[in-house]
Design goal:
Protein name: Phosphatidylglycerol/phosphatidylinositol transfer protein
Low-confidence stretches: 18-61, 112-123
CATH topology: Ganglioside M2 Activator Protein, Chain: A
GO molecular function: sterol binding
Number of helices: 3
CATH class: Mainly Beta
Subunit structure: Monomer.
Largest sheet: 5 strands, antiparallel
CATH architecture: Distorted Sandwich
Mean pLDDT: 68
Radius of gyration: 18 Å
Order of helices and strands: HHEEEEEHEEE
Strand content: 25-35%
Pfam family, one: E1_DerP2_DerF2
Number of strands: 8
Structural class: alpha+beta
InterPro entries: GM2-AP_sf, Ig_E-set, ML_dom, ML_PG-PI_TP, NPC2-like
CATH superfamily: Ganglioside GM2 activator
Shape: globular
Length: 213
């Protein structure tokens, strides 16, 4: 769970909201920019949801959270604590993620050369299948190499990761243009041979709630 929870937040920020410069040339570049029809539907839905409540008053809503959808007893990645600053996350500000967790199986770097240059073929490592949705709209479906993504987000924790207790710190910038909506992230951790799911995480961040600060 350590990498699942933190990587999911970081992936939502860096992969979905990132500037194009953070991607390799030729790689897919997920964007928040939607087609006219989708954007209109999003704006309409966000406006309606933001006005829910008695006499036009908004309900107090928790702005982010996560649940473990994997097998707790068999999960080799377990989180013990998870904090974000600011809490809740705010568009247009830097988001810092701090976590502590236990790793029961060594996580190897998939290919040291691949982290430095795209000239080398990618060897399979532990990966994360990530799906990001905005309501019923699927914004992103992509497989990420966990070790490579830790490098991309300049995490304090890097591969190889030995069994034991580890602290994780990473920071990402959230653009001010994030739509006022609820984003749901599903992440499944897959073994290098694609034969076993070693973890599952559902995470959501709600930007519908107006900023009171």
């Amino acid at each position: 769970m350590l990498l699942k929870a933190t990587a999911a937040i970081a992936l939502l920020s860096s992969a979905v909201f990132a500037a194009p410069a953070q991607y390799d040339q030729g790689a897919a570049r997920p964007q928040v920019v939607l087609s006219g029809a989708r954007q209109a539907a999003l704006n309409w839905g966000a406006d309606k949801l933001s006005k829910l409540g008695d006499n036009g008053e908004m309900h107090a809503m928790t702005q982010w959270g996560w649940t473990d959808c994997g097998l707790a007893n068999d999960d080799p990645l377990k989180i013990e604590s998870l904090q974000v600053t600011p809490d809740p996350p705010k568009p247009g500000r830097n988001l810092t993620i701090n976590a502590t967790g236990k790793v029961s199986k060594r996580i190897e770097v998939s290919d040291p050369h691949r982290l430095l240059t795209s000239e080398y073929p990618m060897q399979k490592g532990t990966s994360a299948d990530v799906t990001v949705k905005l309501g019923l709209i699927k914004l992103l479906t992509k497989r990420f190499d966990l070790c490579e993504e830790l490098v991309n987000i300049k995490s304090s924790l890097q591969c190889p990761i030995e069994p034991g207790t580890h602290d994780f710190t990473a920071s990402v910038d959230l653009p001010a243009e994030i739509p006022r909506a609820k984003f749901v992230v599903s992440a499944k951790i897959i073994t290098p041979d694609d034969t076993e799911e070693t973890g599952c995480l559902d995470l959501w961040i709600n930007f519908l709630v107006p900023d009171q600060h």
